[in-house]
Amino acid sequence: MAVKLDLTAEEAYEIADSFAQASARVLDYRIAHRDHLAPAESDELEKCEDRLDHMVVMFRGYGIQLIGAKASDAVLELKAAIEIAKAAMEQVEKIKDAIKLASALVELAVALTSKDPKAILAAAKALKTSAGAEKEK
Amino acid sequence: MRVSVNSHKLALALVLVSLVLLNGCANLAAVRTFADDTKKLSAAFDPMLAGASASCTEKYIRKKLITSTHFDPAAVEEAAAELCGPIEADNQVVAQLNLLLEQYADTLAALADDKLPSYKAEFDGLTTSLGKVRKAGSQESLVSPDKLGAVGALSEFLSRIATQHLQKEAIRDLLNHEAAIQTVTNALKEYATLNYRAWLRDERRENEALYRSLDRSNETLAANYLKTVLLNENRKIAEREKTIDGFVTAVDQFQKANAEIRRKFEHQDDKELIAELASFAKEVSRLRQQIHGAF
């Protein structure tokens, strides 16, 4: 945004609306007098409308930046609060994963005692999956 | 007999647990409802962001189509993109604010999820595994099934209570940022009333001028067709203007509900709170219907 003015958002929108009204008036004039305007004059008026329309976009864009700037502190505060809340949920998930891991360890111990190769392999795989989930957290 | 006494104690403990849990569930159900409506409110704002850019583009193309003496569709499209393209980039600031509102709703919903404090699946798995452990040199279980069941239930209960406490604390902490969420939602209201309404106003004003210009056209069929198009466009604009009013009312109700749920977090059966939440839900529902008809 090239424009750096000391305006409020409301003022930026008022200025943008003034440009929009001016563009509409030029259009009205061009329409009302189209039978009497030379093509070059009509083209020039159209270009004038385009320039005014660009100013409208620019000042409304500036208005958006000002709306955003007013809320910037609140955004930072809320983002931090959401992160803390998410951390609390992750803590719960970690506990659940730890219980699953303990279960998988017991399964492996039981399988090792039984000396059943298939059971040992299955328990080892389950343990690996549980440990992997825990590690990802 | 001893086993029977223990069973009675366990049953009593479970009844008490259930009462505590029921109380907790009722609280969080209100938060879930509030979070769900907040998410819908955020979704209802999105069409306004795209709408501002579309309004600028359509207005420009329509004006050139009806009034330009040298109308070149491709060149006009290109010029419209050049004129209105920056709006999309500028909108990102506000899109982020709306995203934050959505994240606020999602986080509240996740914190209030009644599955979060449930460790049943995990402890069931653990007790099943422990049940398979045999005494050395025997097929007898190391821990008897009734003891395993009791230990599992108690562990689940303690974990659930601890998690519910954590859940409530986290929700309360998030709700305490009331001023911040109010500022963010006020910014969304400002965008809707200052920015989006202005684009619609421009479009309506220009359509009226274009409509008048067609009165003097010699090409009756084209003029009549374009008048019909403009009439329909202005109807759509009127519908979209209503969505702005609807959004402002819904945000006002959101802010009231947010304040009330924070204030009466421990008294979720409070009639005023229930009424605020119902009003918020009603406004969001009305807004969604308006959005559905307008875009």
Characterize the structure shown.
The complex is a heterodimer of chains A (137) and B (295). Chain A has 137 residues and is mainly alpha-helical. Helices cover 87% and strands 0% of the residues of chain A. In chain A, α1 runs antiparallel to α2 and α3 packs antiparallel against α4. Chain A is elongated and about 105 Å long. Chain A starts with 8 loop residues before the first helix and ends with a helix. Chain B has 295 residues and is mostly helical. Chain B contains 7 helices and no strands. Chain B has helices spanning 2-67, 73-111, 120-131, 145-175, 178-215, 220-263, 271-294. The longest helix of chain B has 66 residues, at 2-67. Chain B is elongated, with a radius of gyration of 30 Å. The termini of chain B are far apart. The model of chain B is unreliable at 1-5 and 18-26 (pLDDT under 50). Classes of the chains: A mainly alpha (137), B mainly alpha (295). The interface between A and B is large, with 59 and 70 residues.
